[in-house]
Amino acid sequence: MQLTGTDKQIKYAEGIITNWSKNYPDIMLPNLSDSQFWITTRSDSLERMLQKAKELSDNLNYISTVFSSSYPKYNRQDVVNALKSLQWNKVIVLDTETNGLNKGSEIIELSIVRYRDKKVLFNSLLQPHDYEHYGLTKQTEKAAKVNGIGVYELRTAPTLPDVWEDIIKILQSHQIIVYNVGFDLPMLQRSALSWGLTMPKLYASCAMLAYQFYRESPDYFSLDEACNYFNIDRSQFGETHRSLADVLATIELVNCMLAEGTQHKQVIPYSGYTAKQEPQMIKLPLLSGNVLSGVSMNGKGKRQAMNTYTVWQKYAGIVSWRTRKPMNTRIMLGEYDANSLIEALSQASKKTGIPSAAFLIGDKL
């Protein structure tokens, strides 16, 4: 058969067809001339490859030339298959906040979280050039309103050169997911160049594109729109448009897509909490062997819940058993596994009868 495609595609496809023939000498391979078909199905099982070939052969609209394209390019199952192919023990999720969207803009906050256990590997504000005027110029005013980062916070933040070696070491040893790769990684490179730093070639998967094709849509979706589709309550992760909160929301979004459309389920079930219950003291062992002390919330705990938002960028959040709203929490994300902690709290609730709690580390009650 005469294959179609670029010279490079044709040569690649010929090798793939040869391998199929060697592995399955008794099988008649599909008579499809599209090099791209053979390239994209090279890792499929024989049954899956033959199924795709039949679908194309039965489609009277199908055409294959160098200039032909298909729309939509991918479907939901393609997204799920692609996500499942990642080495999840090596996956990290990255997000940035910037001081603008122009060519001269820089990163002012960067967060990197390990996917498998939500351990924070890096989370810091970054002091840009001319930080004293952040929020005062036309370029940075809008950014300051969106992310809420103030000059007083940037004043004591490290510069990118101060932490560049640590950042690159993390990125080069993991597979990266970013919600909007086309924005965050170029912005990281732009910031590096502004400081005279060299950024190595990095590969990353785009969760925004994955979600677009998961929805089989021609349009992009914001992270808010994607989370709303799965009923993900972003408030549980802290303030939106802060890099750590956006990373945690992206992880939850990827979880939902991997579940192949299963609607987002509440991790913590309603346990019959009433405002009449009085606070009680409990202690729980953590994975690290430390002791977690806590006090349950009562009907007068509204002020405590509000305090969560002021400390969220440094600490993980535990949510109310009744409302699933964030509560006053002081648990370092970099030290504790949030999922295991929630499970521990759930078990403790069953044993102690305390359905909702705000927790503080060790003796800092």
Give a brief rundown of this model.
It is built from 13 helices and 10 strands. It is of the alpha+beta class and 365 residues long.
Task: Give structural notes.
The chain is α+β, with helices and mostly antiparallel strands. A hairpin with an 8-residue loop joins strand 1 and strand 2. The protein has three domains: 7-70, no CATH class; 88-258, Ribonuclease H-like superfamily/Ribonuclease H (Nucleotidyltransferase, domain 5, 2-Layer Sandwich); 281-361, no CATH class. The protein has a five-stranded mixed beta sheet, with helices on both faces. A three-stranded antiparallel beta sheet has the order 6-7-10, covered by helices on one side. A two-stranded antiparallel ribbon has the order 8-9. It starts with 6 loop residues before the first helix and ends with a strand. Residues 261-338 and 354-365 have low confidence and may be disordered. Helix 4 packs antiparallel against helix 9. It has helices spanning 7-23, 35-40, 46-57, 76-84, 138-147, 151-154, 160-172, 181-194, 207-214, 223-229, 243-258, 302-311, 338-352; strands spanning 91-98, 107-114, 120-125, 175-178, 204-206, 281-285, 291-296, 315-316, 331-332, 357-361. The chain is elongated, with a radius of gyration of 25 Å. Helices cover 39% and strands 13% of the residues. It has 13 helices and ten strands.
